[in-house]
Automatic annotation (TrEMBL):
Domain Glycosyltransferase 2-like: 6-87
SUPFAM superfamilies: Nucleotide-diphospho-sugar transferases (SSF53448)
Cofactor: Mg(2+)
Gene Ontology molecular function terms on file: glycosyltransferase activity
Record organism: Roseovarius gaetbuli
TM region(s), chain numbering: none
Keyword line: Glycosyltransferase, Magnesium, Transferase
The protein's name: Glucosyl-3-phosphoglycerate synthase
Top-level class of the enzyme under EC nomenclature: transferase
Annotated family: Belongs to the glycosyltransferase 2 family.
Superkingdom, natural source: Bacteria
Record EC number: 2.4.1.266
A Pfam short name: Glycos_transf_2
Amino acid sequence: MTDPVSVIVPARNEAETIGKVVSVLFEMADVGEVVVIDNGSDDETAAEARAAGARVVSEPRAGMGHAVRTGIAATRYDWVMKVDADLDKFDTDLFARMPAARGPGVGLVKGAWHDPGDNMPMTRLLVMPAICLMFPGLGHLRAPNSGLYLFNKSLIAQDALVGDYAVDLDVMLRVHAAGAKVAEVDIGRIEHDVRDVPHYNAMAEMLLKFVLSRQNRHLTTEVVMMAQDAAEVIRHALGTLAAKAVAGGRVTIYLAQDQGPDAEVLRAVMAPYPTAQVLPLAGATGFAPGANATGICVLAPFPQAGESEVLDAAIALHNGVGDLASELLLVPIQKAGRVIAGFRPDTVTENEDGLEIKREALNRLEGMAVESTPQREMFQSYASLPEALRPGFQSVEKRPSAG
């Protein structure tokens, strides 16, 4: 028997059809529960769903993403199927193809359908070109923005999902960035109600805004940081690392001293993000990038006299990533009473979404409220150092991919 599936059904004022939808879902193989998200209904949607056997949760905030987040949080099983509240328009027998498509390494299965009265302008003219350019590994999908899909929720930070209709793309990109496969199956034909131009215009603006917001996140460029201890990470680079994890990218932190109160703080603030992990420095020799990685960005302390273990490990990792694009950035680790001589910052990273997490970690680390957190984290490219200061470094002159 395959792993059971939780089904989430966002619904707003669907009292006339929700009972039938829930009943149909319970007839499907592999379905272990149905969770209906009452998204601000003012009719009997919730009552009808309960009468049909669904568990109902309320999400008063308007927006598909808000409903999806609430629904995922209420599910019991790792595998979650998201479907619409108008299943009477689908050939639901074909939905069994989604659970059946799960296999080794698969984290999401998209349900591709066709509508003879809709030539899919949103998919053809916006979503597919954007996905193919930014995430070539997803270029095989015919319906990347399908709202009918099955995914493994343990791969993503569900609380970080966007709150609007772009949530379906957000789930897919997070699963892809986590290193899992995204599969697609044909689930047949549907005839939607005719949609007008203003409908498509509003949706296009929403999806375009989301896609552009991911352009500078480099989701499939993994970030690896090496440091002596967690306090160094928290004070000097956590904004960058947390922002990557919040967006769904993979983050690996190696510490020479991976135990103690500061390490506990770091692990606690990164725990909500399945793509982030904190490990002992000795494990760095076994680092392997995710299956969908297109680049590696390594962060390590700026070289200082008498301290080489961490930087040597970072250089070895950078040199050993094979054909992947890679860069090594130096972090200005401040030591008490010491000035970092020669540091010349030349790189500023995307860290806005990680600053609140950094502030929380600093509060825990210092044992008191931190009123403000520096907005910028500055780094220096290792390749910019004089050659005499970077022995053993392979300056391959390549930058992380935008994928």
